[in-house]
Amino acid sequence: METIKAIMTRRSIRNYTTKQVSKPQVKKLLEAAMNAPSACNQQAWQFIVVSDRDILNAITKIHSYAQMLKTASCAIVVCGDIKAEQCKDYWVQDCSAATQNILLAAHALGLGAVWLGVYPRMERLKDLQKLLGLPKKVMPLSIISIGYPKDKVKSVKRYSAKKVHYEKW
Ligand SMILES: Cc1cc2nc3c(=O)[nH]c(=O)nc-3n(C[C@H](O)[C@H](O)[C@H](O)COP(=O)(O)O)c2cc1C
Description:
By secondary structure, the chain is an alpha+beta fold. Helix content is 34%, strand content 18%.
């Protein structure tokens, strides 16, 4: 899919068919994630791929806005690895770029995905660290719910000239 078209037609997908996402597809998503830009090119990220139904269901108990995981084929948890940071405090931007790359790659592959926010909701973050056995310095920023889209979600245009300023405010 052409890049601009992918960006303009991506939507959050929360309803999935029962078709399973394959391992090579997940690998492609992870490759897209790790090709994201990062501060100092530090790549201080770690990814947890979750396909286990019990774990996916357990996440829905931690995160009330993640109920679609009950029917998702899998999820990728994008984490910042604080210990691996060279440019301090940039892990949030780095992991956000990786998350967006996964969303766009999923869309380009004909999959459906949605970004589920974790950081900076610290209670959610701590519960997820515990559930997934993450070290203390590995901070989950987002969970991406992934599956085959059940229905087509229309693209939207959000461009607003009022939000653009040239040279100065
Ligand atoms: C930081 C962040 C956190 C989000 N958290 C959730 C969430 O917890 N649950 C959910 O269903 N969608 C979540 N979303 C998806 C947004 O609701 C969605 O992107 C927004 O409504 C725009 O719709 P679109 O993605 O279809 O363009 C999140 C998106 C971002 C960027």
